[in-house]
TrEMBL record:
The lineage of its organism: Bacteria, Candidatus Eiseniibacteriota. Transmembrane segments: none annotated. Residues 26-138 form the RNA polymerase recycling bacterial C-terminal domain. InterPro entries: RapA_C. This is RNA polymerase recycling bacterial C-terminal domain-containing protein. GO terms for molecular function: hydrolase activity, acting on acid anhydrides. Pfam families: RapA_C (PF12137). It comes from Eiseniibacteriota bacterium.
């Protein structure tokens, strides 16, 4: 019996040893924080609200920093959202400090049912995989394409001009400044079959030149609109 107890104790100690391998240490704090994008909250704000708009959810801005009322009501254009019941409604904020100050409202961030449901919907469907964008306050006037490629656990933007030449100098506009992006309409650009019958082939040609960059998750055409002088 004593030998059995000793064996169990050794087994338990071995399990705990493996459980605590690579455990959190205070000196790991800086490295962990560096992996969190500095613009995560504004990008989350932009993506979630735009998705709600496209899904037909009711959205009403309220007093407080980045505070919104959002409802998955009977006018929604989708029947379901992963992990979210129809008729659900939330009062919350996209700003962390506001969420700390006001504990009686939701904080729309990773782990929140609405945020997780929207991200799963976007990942599992073809929504959001193509776009026309206008980028305001740009350093120059130009047009081109942007592709978001999966690199490890991250999505990285890669930009090209209309001839397919890489333009890494444009990538910073898509890597950190989502609030500058504005959706555009094809007809406003003159992208109608009569005017540009070979547009689809142009898009394919550009991205086929860069298949070596990895899995292409989303693609867009954009116009850079500089600040008025």
């Amino acid at each position: 019996i004593e030998e059995t107890r000793e064996a169990r104790a050794l087994m338990g100690a071995g399990i705990l040893h493996h459980l605590h391998q690579n455990r959190y240490q205070p000196e790991l704090k800086a490295g962990i924080l560096e992996r969190i994008p500095k613009n995560l909250e504004p990008m989350n704000h932009t993506v979630v609200l735009e998705a709600c708009r496209q899904f037909g959810f009711e959205t009403v801005e309220k007093s407080g920093e980045a505070t919104w009322y959002i409802e998955f009501g009977n006018k929604a254009l989708i029947d379901s959202l992963p992990g979210v019941l129809g008729g659900s409604r939330w009062m919350g904020t996209f700003d962390r400090e506001e969420g700390v100050r006001r504990e009686n409202i939701d904080f729309f961030a990773a782990g929140h049912p609405l945020v997780e449901g929207i991200l799963m919907e976007l990942e599992d469907t073809h929504r959001g995989e193509v776009a026309l964008l206008e980028v305001h306050q740009a350093p120059e006037e130009a047009a081109g394409f942007v592709g978001w490629y999966k690199v490890g656990a991250f999505l990285k933007p890669r930009c090209f001009d209309l001839e397919g030449k890489a333009r890494p100098d444009w990538e910073i506009l898509f890597d950190c400044d989502a609030p500058r992006w504005k959706p555009a309409r094809a007809k406003d650009w003159g992208l109608v079959p009569e005017a540009m019958p070979h547009w689809d082939q142009l898009v394919r040609n550009v991205f086929e030149k860069h298949v070596d960059l990895g899995p292409l998750i989303a693609a867009g055409a954009f116009r850079l609109i500089p600040m008025p002088r």
